[in-house]
Amino acid sequence: MFLQYAVQGVWMPLLPNYLLPSPEKGGLGFTGAQVGWILALAGAIGAFLAPFIAGQLADRYLNGERALGLLLLVSGIGYFITAYQTTFVPFLIFAIVCSIAYQPTLSITNSVAFANLQDPERRFPPLRMLGTVGFIGATILFPMVWLRGVDEVEKTARIGDSLKVAGVMSIAYAAFCVVLLPKTPPKKNGGNPLAFVEAFALLRHPGFAVIMLLALPIAVIHSAFFMRMAPFLKDAIGVKQEYVTSAMAIGQASEIFCLLALGFLLKRLGYKVVLAIGIAAYLVRFVIFAVGWPGPLVIAAIALHGVGFACFLAAAYVYVERVAPPDARHSVQTVFGIVVLGLGPVLSGFYNQYWDRFSHLADGVKVQDYSQFWWTQAAIAALTLLLLAALFPKTQTTTTQF
C-alpha cells in the first residue's frame, strides 16, 4: 500500500506546475484544457478498461501478485518514456498507456489484500492507511530533495523528473509484488470464463448496486473538492500560498487516524451507519466552507476529509469485497473503480468547468465566487445521504447468500 500510493504521490500533485508554464519558464507550455485531457482522460480510460484487461488477467490467467507486477512494470517503463515527451499528443498517448497499466493496480492491490487477510474488515483499513502515508511522504520528499536550491526555471523543469522517479518506484514495486507478496492464484474454473461478465452481473445484488449508485455523486464532489480547495483557501480564506498545502494536509492526516478506526466502526456500527457517517462528513464540511467564516473553523473542517474518505470510500471498498464472488474479486474491484476512479473524476471535470462562470472582476482581477459552489456540493451530499437511507439494504448479505 505504501509503494502503491507513493508512485502516485511523487508526480500527481506537482505535474500541472510542469505542464502549464511556458518552455522559457521551464515547463512544456500546454494549455489548461490539454492538462485536463492528460489528467482526467488518461485516468478515466485506465479505469474503464480495467475490468476487461487487468481484472480478467488477475481473475483467470495470472496470480494476482504477478498480474500486479506485470502491470507495474509496464507503467514504470511508460512513466520513463513519458518524462521525455515535450509535445502534447505524444505526452497524452503515453499518459494513457501509463494509466491503462497503473489504474487497475489501485483496485487489484485491494483485492490481493482482501484475498490474503483474515478478518479483512478489521485488518484492511490499517493497511490502506499506509497508502496515505506513502502518498504524503512522496509528495513531501521529492520537492524537498530535488527542487531545493535552484532557480524557478530550473525548479519547474525538474518537476518533470518526478515521472522518472515514479518509473523507478513502479519497477521496484513490481519486483516487490512478484518476489514478496503471498501467492494469490486465479480461479480458472470460475463460474464464467469472462470474469468481468460475472463482475457486472453483481449489479443484481441490491447492496452492490446501491453502493455503485452512491459512489458516483460522492466521487464527483470528492474530485471537485481537490480542484477548488487550494484557490479557495488562498483567495477566499486568506491562507498564504506557502501554507496552502500544509492546510490541505490536515485532511490527509485525519485520513490516517480515521482509517485506523474504520475496522472498529464497521464491527460496532455496521456498514449502513458507517457509510452515513462518511457522507454526513462531506455534507457538514461543505456547509462550513459555504459559510466561509470564521477562518479557523474552515481550516478545522478540512479534517472532515479523512472521515468522509475512510467511512465512505474505504468502507465501500471493504463492502464490495464482502459481496464479491471469490472467483471474480479482482474484476469486481475494478468494476467499482470505473465509478470511483473513472466516471466520477471525468464528470467532475465538466462539473468543475461549469463553476468558472460564477466569478466577478475586482480591481481588474477575476475572482471566483465560491459560496454557491460549496452549497451545491453540500446539496449533492445531502441527496446522497437520503438515497443511502432509503435504498441501502438493512441486512447486508454475501453474494452466496444472495
List key phrases describing it.
Growth Hormone, Chain: A, 402 residues, mainly alpha, 2 domains, single chain, two-stranded antiparallel ribbon, 2% strand
Architecture blueprint of SSEs:
Blueprint: H1 2-9, H2 16-19, H3 32-49, H4 51-61, H5 64-83, H6 88-116, H7 120-146, H8 152-159, H9 161-180, H10 195-201, H11 206-237, H12 241-269, H13 271-291, H14 295-301, H15 304-323, H16 329-354, E1 359-362, E2 365-368, H17 371-391
Antiparallel strand pairs: 1-2
Description:
By secondary structure, the chain is mainly α. The chain has 2 domains: 1-185, MFS general substrate transporter like domains (Growth Hormone, Chain: A); 192-393, Up-down Bundle (Growth Hormone, Chain: A). The chain contains 17 helices and 2 strands. It has helices at 2-9, 16-19, 32-49, 51-61, 64-83, 88-116, 120-146, 152-159, 161-180, 195-201, 206-237, 241-269, 271-291, 295-301, 304-323, 329-354, 371-391, and strands at residues 359-362, 365-368. Strands 1-2 form a two-stranded antiparallel sheet. The longest helix has 32 residues, at 206-237. The radius of gyration is 21 Å and the shape is globular.
Number of helices: 17
Question: Biggest sheet, open or closed, and with what strands and sense?
Answer: 2 strands, antiparallel
Going across the biggest sheet, name each strand in turn. Answer: 1-2
- Beta-strand percent range: under 5%
What is the level 1 CATH name of the largest domain? Mainly Alpha
Query: Which superfamily, in CATH terms, is the homologous superfamily of the largest domain?
Result: MFS general substrate transporter like domains
Number of domains: 2
Mean pLDDT: 90
Q: Which architecture of the largest domain does the CATH hierarchy give at level 2?
A: Up-down Bundle
Unreliable segments of 5+ consecutive residues:
397-402
Radius of gyration: 21 Å
SSE run: HHHHHHHHHHHHHHHHEEH
End-to-end CA span: 31 Å
How many E-type strands? 2
What is the CATH fold-level name of the largest domain?
Growth Hormone, Chain: A
Structural class: mainly alpha
The residue fraction in helices comes out at over 70%
Q: Outline, from the CA principal axes?
A: globular
